[in-house]
Amino acid sequence: MPNRIKIIKNILESNDTIAAKNKDRFLTANILTLNLIASPGAGKTSLVEQTLKFLSNKLRIAVINGDISTSLDTERAAKAGASALQINTGGECHLDALMLQKALDNFNLGDFDLLIVENVGNLVCPSSFDLGTQFTVVVASVPEGDDKPYKYPGTYLNADVVILNKIDLSPYVPFDKGNFYNGVRLLNSAAKIFEVSCLHGDGLQYWCAWITSQIELLQQNRYHQ
Amino acid sequence: MPNRIKIIKNILESNDTIAAKNKDRFLTANILTLNLIASPGAGKTSLVEQTLKFLSNKLRIAVINGDISTSLDTERAAKAGASALQINTGGECHLDALMLQKALDNFNLGDFDLLIVENVGNLVCPSSFDLGTQFTVVVASVPEGDDKPYKYPGTYLNADVVILNKIDLSPYVPFDKGNFYNGVRLLNSAAKIFEVSCLHGDGLQYWCAWITSQIELLQQNRYHQ
């Protein structure tokens, strides 16, 4: 096996071991955890803000933001009412399970119903690193174009949920919704898809209802254990 | 020095050695070379199409597209009139100098005035890998938001040119142009900035005039050698 491939394999195996530990921690704390992956500017932080607006009076929500160098997104999440923490990756292009493990030490997870992890804005690298979260949520946006599932298959293959954001821009840009949906479905027959506008608030009630239903499921399973 | 950092340092040093060879090849062939870096969906391929539309009757243009798995962008460049070649990175999140070196063997560089290298859609990783091209062009787009220079400083720091695309969407999304320009200028006082709409054709004449002037400069220097 060539050296470089061996090194990458070792890094990923080590990551998976820590991700499994994170997962156990989330299960024990009975907390729903989401890993948000998207291109820069697709609207991850706006989605976090809107989710907090809809749900922060019903749920106890924590947010962890991965960013290369700034705390801008964390400040937005905190302002919107979350217990928010920043991971500065120091130039790294993705979060990994160890970074998240260290960040988790700053929370008492039992105090929360929902943890949203906002990954670094990147449609390639984050999808290779399992964080141990329960669901991976890919945020796409209409002005990025309808070809993204075809061009970034690894990311769409691993998505449990796809959010199609900025649908309010549909009248102004060429975007073939059928082609986008076909691309997602070619790779991933199971992913839930929600169309939203984080700018105007459209469609977010369905996304938030899905979150609430998943938390209810988690809690029911807990009671039946 | 920790092992991982040493490995990355070795990879980058080896990359720089090959990039220097690519650079020599470009100088010898007297060809202008551009490395396009952007988020997925910012409009790199649309910029290539528009540039070809404006310049392909005056200049001999080649395009090399980096993509994780598809040849969609290369097909668009070929359709727009370029001699186009695809590099499939096989999942890699950026082009490196060696990938480009191998691709160059498919061209007689002396037959062209301009080579546009369209990097993988990623605002983080490509900026670490010099390809040996003369100019790095970062394509931003209005719907991505005005905070991108602050959040992806490595990419903006290394830009020779910043294209702000999709200015036609300005009326429909919050975008503080002053904040965007300040972010670019904080990192980079020298970068040329062009505002364009690749969808409607606005502003592209200035970008194309800049390309033409750079090629004239190259050729003048050549005559004076």
Explain what the structure shows.
2 copies of one chain form a homodimer. Chain A has 8 helices and 7 strands; from the N terminus they run αβαβαβαββααβαβα. With 225 residues, chain A is of the alpha/beta class. A 7-stranded parallel sheet of chain A has the order 3-2-4-1-5-6-7, with helices on both faces. The mean pLDDT of chain A is 94. At the A-B interface, helix 5 of A face helix 5 of B.
Instruction: Determine the CATH superfamily of chain A.
Output: P-loop containing nucleotide triphosphate hydrolases
Strand coverage percent of chain A: 15-25%
Biggest beta-sheet profile of chain A: 7 strands, parallel
* End-to-end distance of chain A: 44 Å
- In the CATH scheme, the class of chain A would be Alpha Beta
Number of domains of chain A: 1
Discrete helix count of chain A: 8
Which segments of chain A are poorly predicted (pLDDT under 50) over 5 or more consecutive residues?
A: none
Structural category of chain A: alpha/beta
Oligomer: homodimer
Topology:
2 copies of one chain form a homodimer.
Chain A (H helix, E strand, L loop, with lengths): L2 H27 L2 E7 L5 H12 L5 E7 L4 H8 L3 E6 L8 H8 L9 E5 L16 E7 L6 H4 L1 H5 L3 E5 L11 H11 L4 E4 L8 H20 L2
Helix pairs in contact in A: 1-4, 2-8
